Amino acid sequence: MIKIIKDNKIDIIHAHTGAAANYALAFKPFVKCTIATRRVTIPIKNPIKKWKYKKLDRVVIVSKNMTEQLRFLKNIEWIESAIDPKFSKCITRNEAIHFLNIDDKFMYICSVGKIETMKGQDYLIKAFALLKKEMHNVKLIIAGSGNTKKLIDTAKALNVQKDIIFTGFVEDTRYIYAASDVCVVASIFGEGSSAVIKEALSCKIPVVSTNIGSADYLINDNGLLVEPKNIKQMKNAILELLMKKRAVNFDTERFLPKNMTKKYEKLYENCFLS
């Protein structure tokens, strides 16, 4: 690795995982600047890990809410994560309904993202089951790759399996958002700057999200926040947004890659010169 650094005249190492940050620190003597990005809101409790991030030249956070849990650091830079530039232009509901081959007489709730424990899709299904007792013309779309067996079992146990559509991985998720009336982010921990929130709001779809990471300032007046794992709160929030349409006002331009790139260019320049 040292040979690679010297042969290629590498000046900056930018680590994007905790493990990669270990390498950035190890090779710090051989470069001019070391940077690590943290995208999760999981607190750093291990003293050795705290020491590691203190020793790096810069630590990038993707949510300003992470500042408090990293208050032991003096080298923080806040740079929001970008979303795909295609979200600067969304599509129509009719196009989405046709693409997904679903019935337009229903209202739709969507969940987008990898199917895993931290994303909390099982809590969303439980909230959806409560919702179905009060509202019958609604279905749930769960888009994302992963093991759906546990979720299907939960849906069957709650007798809502016929009202849930598992799409698997969808290349262009604009179709999922555009077909939906409400997007739900049910994550129970770890979210930094949720791409799903930014994508859904870019498509003018209101969001119900657990109050984690950047959810509060991203959503603002464009949706509702609930506590993680609180299925009754989640059900009530979804119902409120379905019953009373909320206009979405969101600055998609702010989250396009070109703007994130400018901030990283400035970071690299300042880090290199300091």
Task: Label this structure with key terms.
17% strand; 10 strands; elongated; alpha/beta; Rossmann fold; four-stranded parallel β-sheet; 274 residues; 11 helices
Structure, described:
By secondary structure, the chain is of the alpha/beta class. It is 37% helix and 17% strand. The protein has 2 domains: 2-80 and 256-273, Rossmann fold; 85-253, Glycogen Phosphorylase B (Rossmann fold, 3-Layer(aba) Sandwich), CATH 3.40.50. It is built from 11 helices and 10 strands. Helix 5 (121-132) packs parallel to helix 6 and helix 5 (121-132) packs across helix 10 (231-243). The longest helix has 17 residues, at 257-273. The chain is elongated. The relative contact order is 0.14.
